[in-house]
Amino acid sequence: MFFPVLMMCSLLNAALPFDLGQSTRCVSIPPEMSVCHDVGYSEMRLPNFLGHTSLENEVIPKSEDWRPLLQTGCHPQARTFVCSLIAPVCLDTFIQPCRSMCVAVRDSCAPLLACQGQAWPEALDCERFPAEEDTCLSPVSKETAHFYKVMPKPTCQGCPAVEEAFAYKSVLDAFCQNDFAVKVKVTRRRFPSEEPEFEIEGRVEFISQGQLLPYDTHSLLQQWMLINESCGQRLTRIGRSLLYVLAGDVQADGTVSVKRIFQWHKRDTQLTLAVRKWRHHKC
Questions:
Q1: Quick one: signal sequence residues (predicted)?
Q2: What is the pTM of this model?
C-alpha cells in the first residue's frame, strides 16, 4: 500500500539541485490534486521544490504516491509538509518547511515506512531545510505537539491470528489480560478512491475502554489497519462487512497494539455470552 521507497526517492532527487532563483509561475492547484486541497491556499508555484514543471505529467500523478502515507494520519502536519514541497504556496518568495517541521514529521512517519521495510528517503534529509523559524513553515505549537504526543497512537505490529472457535471463558480471560476490548465492523472498498482502502464502519462499541479516548478510537483503529496492512487484508473482504472484537493494550508511551482478535458471527453465542457476563465479571 505504501509507495516504494525507490519511487519516492526518484520523486525527490530532483529537489536537491533546485535553484530558488529560477523563474517560476503561479498556477491554480487543480481539482485532481486532492491531496493538497484545504491546505489554506489555492495557488502553487511551478516548478515546485521537486523540480516538477508539468501539472498533468508530473505533479498530479506524483502527488498520488503520497496518499497512502497521508491517509494514516502519521502526523498532524504531514500533509502540510508534503504539499509545501509538491505544491509550494504562490507568494513573493519561496516558503520551505522548517527543519523542525521535517524532523517532527519524519519522527512520526518514518516508523510507518519502516513497518513496510522502507527507510526515510535520503532526499528528505531534514538538514537541507532552513533552521530559521521566521523564513519557513514552522511546526505545530508546543501545546499542540504535546497533545498529539500523549494521544494513543497505533503501532506497527505482527497481526494476531483471527480466532473463530472459542469458549466464552477464553474471551473473558482475554478481556482481563488486555487494557481494552472493542466491537468493530470493518470492510474494504471495492474500487480505488480518495478514501482509505480499509474502513471502520459506523461507531466503535466499547466492551472495556481502558485508556482509549471515545472521540478518537474510530480514527485510531482506522489508522491501525492502514499501518498494519497485513491485518487490514486479513480482516476485510471486498464489498462485505465483517464484525470483530479487538482486544489490546495501550503502552506507557501511548502506543496501541491489538493482541487478540475474535470474529463475531451472527449465530455465535460465545461472544454474546462473554460480553454479557463481562459486566459483572471479576478477573
A1: 1-17
A2: 0.74
The Cβ of residue 106 has, within 10 Å, a number of other Cβ atoms equal to 20
Class level of CATH domain 153-278: mainly beta
Are the C-beta atoms of 137 and 98 separated by less than 8 Å?
Answer: yes
**Residues 106 and 126: beta-carbon distance below 8 Å:** yes
Cβ neighbours of residue 206 closer than 8 Å, sequence gap 6 or more: 180, 181, 182, 183, 212, 214, 217
Helix (H, G, I), strand (E, B) or coil at 54: coil
Evaluate the CA torsion angle 155, 160, 163, 167 in order and state its sign.
Answer: negative
Q: Indicate the angle between helix axes 168-177 and 269-278, nearest 10 degrees.
A: 50
Q: 71 with 226: CB under 8 angstroms?
A: yes
d(CA 204, CA 215): 10
| For the chain, domain boundaries | 5-148, 153-278
pLDDT tens digits, 33-69: 999 988 889 999 999 888 888 999 999 998 988 888 8
CATH topology of domain 5-148: Frizzled cysteine-rich domain (1.10.2000)
β-partners of residue 89 are 44
Q: Which comes out higher in pLDDT, residue 122 or 56?
A: 56
Cell for 257? Answer: 497494539
Across residues 265-282, what is the average pLDDT?
Answer: 91
Q: For position 94, what pLDDT does the model report?
A: 81
Chain segment 174-199, per-residue pLDDT in tens? 999 999 999 999 999 877 667 788 89
